Amino acid sequence: MGLIAVMAVSGCQNKVATPQDLQGWYSMICFKHGYTGGARDNCMNSLTNSNGRQLPDGPTEFADRPPYTDSQMPNSG
Description:
Elements: H1 2-11, H2 19-32, H3 37-49, E1 54-55, E2 58-59
Antiparallel strand pairs: 1-2
């Protein structure tokens, strides 16, 4: 569970999330929701394209969203 601790700490800093930060988070969320194999790839793409807001089968719960503000996300408009 070290990944969760690292993600929580990095989320408290005022920096833009890197793709590497987000890949670790998204991977954990996909695993949590049971996405494996090709479904995991689909889950990762869905989360990446939506800034962590959308799983393949519906919106993410607030607790599953990355620990960054919208302005810290690389895809922020």
